[in-house]
Write a structure and sequence with these properties.
119 residues, Rossmann fold, 21% strand
Length: 119
Amino acid sequence: MKLMIVDDSSIMRKAIEKYLTGAGIEIVGTAGDGKQAIELFKSTMPDVVTLDITMPEMDGLQCLEELLKIKPDVKVMVVSALKDESTALEALKKGARSFLGKPFTPESIKEAFDQVVAD
């Protein structure tokens, strides 16, 4: 299972990496914005992506649409501090498999990730 982590906060990227490493998960890359994510995605073709919404260059919703054009079966889990329902619904409508609010616990991100992978 190849995982790519996309978040403009290096602290968040490290936390997600720490909590999701192991059990057959290979972190194939991390990106700090949507444009970087798309370039990295093309070269690594991960199975799962964790994706922040609020980022410089290109936001997570635009990035989500581009990733799905490249690989329609990629499983995208949005991890965002934007907890309003409309943002979550928009992400899910555009093709995200789940939405997890920040801050998260090690347990909540593992649980959300397992659900996305099982989908």
